[in-house]
Amino acid sequence: MNTQQTHLIAESVPTVSRREGIATRAQFQTNDDKDMLRAARDLTKDLGEAKPAIYWTDMLVSAGIGYLGMAMAIMSANWALSIVAAVIASLALYRAVMFIHELTHIRKEALPGFRLGWNLLVGIPLLTPSFMYEGVHVIHHKRTQYGTVEDPEYLPLALMKPWSLPVFVLVALLAPIALIIRFAVLVPLGFFVPAVRNFVWQRFSALSINPEFRRKPPTGDFRKRVLWQEMAASLWAIAILLSPLVLDWRPVLIAFAIFSLTAVLNQLRTLVAHLWENEGDPMTVTAQFLDSVNVPPPGRIAELWAPVGLRYHALHHLMPSMPYHDLPEAHRRLNIELGTGSTYEGANHAGMLPLVGRIARSTMIRR
């Protein structure tokens, strides 16, 4: 494991011993479970090397199935077959899109050409180029910013009003329209009106859920990546917008429906990625871990709605740079070593529905 993976684990902090029952975030708001952090470091020293063959194969197969399913959904005259193909396409493209999360953590030299390949095959065609996550997601992992108003990926959903949960999920249905407007309309307009470009960059250039987040201007090599990715996505969005003039509305509408389903799946995953119980105070590493969610085996369905290692989201917060393909083995070792009743067990949950129920009950209890 490299230093990035262990920087959260190696802090010298007071030890909080294991306890009976399941650990909670509130118990570790000011003190870490040093035993768990040390175990996470020591038991995974031989893991952490990104394997290009796994990344490329997984991404290419997922994207290929997704685009094939989309083509079948568009061309089939049988509505039942079209719907099945659209669902398969949405699930496959969802998995392909989720590699954007890996791009923010894995060193570029570990996967030569992967960022460029992913952007050309997935990011730009689906109007989610990697710049929309790079430089943003890392803030979510910063020791003093997680769960605070500065965190672009945190909202205290469990502390909000009950109606906020369905609104949070359903607004994702509008993602295709919002991205088309951003890239096909606002980006070209911003080329002539700097104020529009600055506004779009600050407010609509990050895959964030915190409405108060304002993105800082890009600099250096990152700025160059932003320019070509944004230009390519803008040209593609304009082509999509004009395509009904050449074809008809069916391909665009079906593609939008598939992308909308993909966006809703991601929003549902986001809803249960954390317990969302922090009220804005800085948290210890252990508290961040326990506010995050693992949905480990034996359940299998989590691999569909939390792909590319995201079913081990809490473990990911302990080891942000651990490649997704090593997370199952890291979880297995920690689960065996720390055992029942450990702090580590406190982040393990049964599935999406129990988690949604827990968050929903919390919003109602607090009214």
UniProtKB/TrEMBL annotation:
Entry keywords, A to Z: Membrane, Transmembrane, Transmembrane helix
Keyword Cytoplasm tagged: no
Segments crossing the lipid bilayer: 53-74, 80-101, 113-133, 167-193, 226-246
Ranges where the Fatty acid desaturase domain occurs: 78-334
InterPro entries xref list: FA_desaturase_dom, Fatty_acid_desaturase
Presence of the UniProt keyword Iron in the record: no
Protein name: Fatty acid desaturase
Lineage: Bacteria, Pseudomonadati, Pseudomonadota, Alphaproteobacteria, Sphingomonadales
